[in-house]
Amino acid sequence: MKATKLLKRYFDANPPVEEQIHVLVVVPEGAVASEISETAQMIKKVDEMHAQIVQTKREQYVHSKVGSSDGKKLLQALNIQVDAVDAVPFATRNSTPVQAFRWASVSDERGQEITLTEEQQRQRYRSYVEDNIGDVLAEKKLCVLGVEKGGNILSVAVPGYDIDLVGRTDILVLSDIAKKHPLHLQFLPGVRLLIEVKKTKDLKSGCVYQALSELIALDLLTKDPMMALLTDLNGHWQFFWVSERTGSSTIIQTLIITTPGEAFQVIRTLLAQSPSSDEDIHLPCYEGPVKRRKLAKMLPSITEGGACGDIHASLQRMYDIASMLGPDIDMARDVARQITRSIPSFSMYT
Question: The whole model's pTM is what?
Fold first, then answer.
């Protein structure tokens, strides 16, 4: 470069070949690799934390397999408490006593006991229920349908939770359009009540949690408050409904009737009243109005507010930026610190 030449001449867009300047930069060995390695390790750690917090493995509860252990675990996860209440004496007695359902066998014309198949049992107890609430079914255009076979009609993902409920129940009382047009059954039109039926010998404490699981699923699948019934069609008629929210807990109330006549009186009274969530209902077995609420409106989401919600938002923002601009090591560090601070055992060190 000649001393008489101005320096800016050599930085023109297209200088002559003889006036071009070539610069060689020597980078210390390992400097780039070290920074890339550190970035890769940080991104890997954040990915692992993301998998643990955002992509947590979902818990699945199959209604028919939910016993005491899984049932308590489910209620604890959803912060649901069960409040057992006692039935009050009925103001009016049913003038026509209802016989308990006869299980297992029937007598033929010669008085011989004939053992029935499982499907025959189902047909008989569906007819038994229909016969005892037939008037209100006709008046409200409802029907009794067996749904113990076929698809898992009570399958639902619990909103805001890593929980799936899967399965079905025995009987649904719902709009008779589901009987006229079976394809409509999947939409649960006008459903009012689910009935889980057990033989007396099979009626154990774990069955209560099965009924609770089914009630939770049905409530989440429908727009109106629901009620569930666990029964042996003899001396155990246990009703469940979502009642209210107390503090951070959702309350499900349960009540037991011991005679078929009074139980069917409760069912008829229930079906005759409005299913709307805006109205309390009155039942002959319960003192005062029965509060029924929608579970979905009372369940707090695990990602609503608090540390989990903030972390979820930060992770999502980091991945959105990385997808457009590439990894950002400083942002990854900030998110990692935020996650660490949210873990109680590590929070004291951050």
Answer: 0.71
